[in-house]
Amino acid sequence: MSKKVGMVSLGCPKNQVDAEIMLSKLQNGGFEIVNDPGEADIIIVNTCGFIESAKKESIENILDMVSYKEDYPSVRVLVTGCLAERYRSQILEEIPEVDGVIGIGANNDVCEVCDKLLSFEKVEEYPAKESLCFDGDRILTTPEYTAYIKIAEGCSNKCTYCAIPSIRGEYRSRPAESILAEAETLAKNGVKELIVVAQDTTRYGEDLYGKNALSPLLRSLCKIEGIEWIRLLYLYPERIDDTLIDTIAQESKIVKYLDIPVQHCSERVLKRMNRQGDRQSLTNLFNKIREKIPDVTLRTTLIAGFPGETEEEFEELCDFVSEMQFERMGCFAYSEEEGTPAAKLDGMLPEEERTRRADIINDLQSEILDEINESLIGMELQTIVEDYDGYTDSYYGRTVMDAPEIDTQICFTCGYELNNGDIVSVEVINCVDGLLTGEAI
């Protein structure tokens, strides 16, 4: 029997790691992995269900995949991931062409589920979220020199706007021994850039060891031969202490790039989000980080138009962005998610107003980024090579200031041949329409 499986994976790096683990299980279980959905007996759509735009993208992809049934009636479509965990039977009710829906706890059983689908059974399985296995062999879907490594699953922060705790469950850390063993394997297979991810990396170890264990984990990762860059994503501001800052400052392998989603700066808005801090505490934190790590790149995420956000609080957020001069930033209009406490708050703003406010902040950040890019001219930036354009004889890569899929690239020339994954020093020569250009030293 033909057992060909294709997969479309959407959403965040954490979901991508889940997809890579499932692909490995399928390959080890006798399935052939194919890239063309038209060749597949089973098409898996590993969905995201975090906010409205992500849900729409997931549904569009599901509809695209079930359309293959018009030409290939025997093809089976399986929906996995966050949308599957969140909406379960609703997906089959709304899109009856789907043949199976499984929650994240059933990822371990993906081979058995696919065998049932090949026998033309309809499948629905929703085991406990905690059954999700977040370590194991993976088939990397990133370039061979870059890999994400998930250090925890779920979230216990209970931000009022966020559905992740209900989708992914409570925060649970992965044992350090498992993380280090996987990192060793990745390094032996050629990975140079290791990107550490969790819903909140700064909470790592509290549930397992009774204390924060991120700094010791990072120092251990830095000892692994072959790993040259270690990049940190999703650090919550209230848990960034002096120990962590010092670790990042002292360890040369840790890229000086910190993704710290603050969401807002108004104390009242943050309290309504069930988050800590205020403008002054956040300002003090960022100033401390920049003092101890002078070459740091700070990325943050903001929400505009949260329920009850006044014009004065929005202006405060704009002032905060202007003052902080974040090197990287994204602002999103508040997305009203059913089942979350924020969806029941008073002061819900019209969607057009939320979008307007987000656009204003993103435009402000665009101006800040132009100034930052101009200030980089003449500087040398460590850059990982990602592509070569033979037509212009130019290379494209990501600097230490840029994470994959999130940030931008630099275009540069080089007097000698480079390979993807090489890390070189590039002098910035110009900035054209937001794209840095340079020359390898």
Would you kindly provide a written description of the structure presented here, covering whatever features stand out?
This protein is α/β, with parallel strands linked by helices and 441 residues long. Helix content is 34%, strand content 23%. It has 14 helices and 19 strands. It has helices at 13-28, 52-66, 82-87, 89-94, 110-118, 164-168, 176-188, 206-209, 214-222, 242-250, 267-272, 279-292, 311-324, 351-376; strands spanning 4-9, 32-33, 42-47, 76-81, 100-102, 123-125, 146-150, 152-153, 172-173, 193-197, 229-232, 254-259, 297-304, 328-333, 380-389, 394-399, 410-413, 423-432, 435-440. The strands form 4 sheets. The protein has a 6-stranded parallel β-sheet, sandwiched between helices. A 6-stranded parallel β-sheet has the order 7-10-11-12-13-14. Helix 13 (311-324) packs parallel to helix 14.
What's the structural blueprint in terms of helices and strands?
Elements: E1 4-9, H1 13-28, E2 32-33, E3 42-47, H2 52-66, E4 76-81, H3 82-87, H4 89-94, E5 100-102, H5 110-118, E6 123-125, E7 146-150, E8 152-153, H6 164-168, E9 172-173, H7 176-188, E10 193-197, H8 206-209, H9 214-222, E11 229-232, H10 242-250, E12 254-259, H11 267-272, H12 279-292, E13 297-304, H13 311-324, E14 328-333, H14 351-376, E15 380-389, E16 394-399, E17 410-413, E18 423-432, E19 435-440
Parallel strand pairs: 1-2, 1-3, 3-4, 4-5, 5-6, 7-10, 10-11, 11-12, 12-13, 13-14, 17-19
Antiparallel strand pairs: 8-9, 15-16, 15-18, 16-17, 18-19
